[in-house]
Specification:
There is one protein chain. The longest helix has 32 residues, at 234-265. 48% of the residues are buried. The protein has two domains: 4-125 and 304-338, Nucleotidyltransferase, domain 5; 134-300, 2-Layer Sandwich (Nucleotidyltransferase, domain 5), CATH 3.30.420. Helix content is 44%, strand content 19%. The radius of gyration is 20 Å and the shape is globular. With 339 residues, the protein is of the alpha/beta class. It has helices at residues 44-66, 85-102, 111-117, 166-176, 183-191, 214-230, 234-265, 280-293, 302-305, 310-322, and strands at 4-9, 14-21, 24-32, 75-81, 106-110, 134-139, 144-151, 154-160, 269-273, 296-298. It has ten helices and ten strands. The structure holds 5'-O-[(R)-(carboxyoxy)(hydroxy)phosphoryl]adenosine and zinc ion. Zinc ion is lined by residues 111, 115, 140, 274-275, 307.
Length: 339
């Protein structure tokens, strides 16, 4: 089998295209959108407009970097959902038209499943590939899930957030501190110089494997409001310690349920995926867990943690082998439950 798959990702604020030869990455091009920074979050209308501007150049570059002519492509895979409807429509419409004009199969993928499938990407770096079944903590800007991955097409969500996602907790905490969007990477950076035990924030009590992050946001908001009354420079003076303490709390919340999931399922192969899996604190905690508890741990490369089209293309490749193609009539879904 030798298949060339084009992947297209446009679910949020990154326009990305990738070309794979089976699971090997030949190109993975990402155009980030700066337009949202001054609004402190993604503005859906601006995002769809920027996707419209970026999509052709990004795909063109991905084909050129891969040194592949469009006529050599065997299939086009795209993100059908979940995400922002206007953003998804740009990628879906382009993918449909492109596949139709080339006379090749169209493959729809789920963005959150694709984050997990990023573990099966191959490039010049040697990384271990998980064996089935494994658990994956999938943590992004809109989702936080513990997924039992039985095989490439059978994934069961065994725990999820009942309110905010972990990435949202990072971003909202950063916003409260006056840091620009997206706050996750900045908190990660500042936390490296801070003391994670300096401040403590309450952790939620949610039964089972589910998560909650909205209480943390409120507790940070009230804590900072009280401190700022006494000292208007409080955030400025304590920025690194605040970031380290907030990051530590989020990691602690994430890890407790993940540990519980390994105990309940007996599965000790544990992966992380999604934008928040780029967090250095979470990565280090997973490595510690590997050393202390004998977990087999899988951590994606940073460029495959945050949104990218290589993960869409690799999901597409496994569906291509199964002959699992999408009809032209399919419409995107904003929420995973609307699939
Ligand atoms: O998966 P992703 O790129 O997009 C979505 O599918 O949502 O995840 C984006 C989220 C944002 O909330 C961003 O702040 C967070 O991932 N993020 C991080 C880091 N890098 C990205 N959070 C913490 N530490 C990081 N290094
Ligand atoms: Zn994502």
């Amino acid at each position: 089998m030798c298949a060339y798959i084009l992947g297209i990702e446009s679910s949020c604020d990154d326009t990305s295209a990738a070309v794979l030869n089976n699971t090997r990455v030949l190109s993975n091009v990402i155009a980030n959108q700066q337009a949202h920074e001054r609004f402190g979050g993604v503005v859906p209308e601006l995002a769809s407009r920027a996707h419209q501007q970026n999509i052709i150049p990004v795909i063109d570059t991905a084909l050129k970097v891969a040194n592949i002519d469009k006529k050599q492509l065997d299939a086009v895979a795209y993100t059908r959902g979940p995400g922002l409807m206007g953003s998804l429509l740009v990628g879906a419409s382009f993918a449909k038209t492109f596949a139709l004009s080339l006379g090749i199969p169209l493959i729809e993928t789920d963005h959150m499943e694709a984050h997990i499938m990023a573990h099966f990407l191959m490039d010049d770096e040697d990384r271990p590939v998980p064996e089935f079944p494994f658990l994956c903590l999938t943590v992004s800007g809109g989702h936080t899930q513990i997924v039992l991955v039985r095989n490439t097409s059978q994934m069961e969500i065994i725990g999820k957030t009942i309110d905010d996602a972990a990435g949202e907790a990072f971003d909202k905490a950063a916003k409260i501190m006056g840091l620009p969007y997206p706050g996750g990477p900045l908190i990660d950076k500042l936390a490296k110089e801070g003391n994670p035990t300096r401040f403590s924030f309450s952790e939620p009590h949610v039964p089972g494997l589910d998560y909650s992050f909205s209480g943390l946001k409120t507790s940070i908001l009230y804590f900072l409001r009280d401190q700022l009354r006494a000292d208007s420079q409080f955030i400025e003076i304590n920025k690194s310690d605040l970031c380290a303490s907030i990051q530590q709390t989020i990691i602690s919340i994430l890890m407790k349920k993940l540990v519980l999931a390994t105990e309940i399922t007996g599965i000790k192969q544990v992966a992380i995926a999604g934008g928040v899996s780029a967090n250095s604190g979470l990565r280090n905690t997973m490595l510690q867990k590997r050393d202390e508890s004998g977990w087999k741990v899988f951590i994606p490369k940073i460029s495959y943690s945050t949104d990218n089209a290589a993960m869409i293309a690799v999901t597409g490749f496994f569906k291509f082998i199964e002959g699992n193609f999408a009809g032209q009539h399919l419409t995107p879904y904003a929420r995973q439950s609307g699939r």
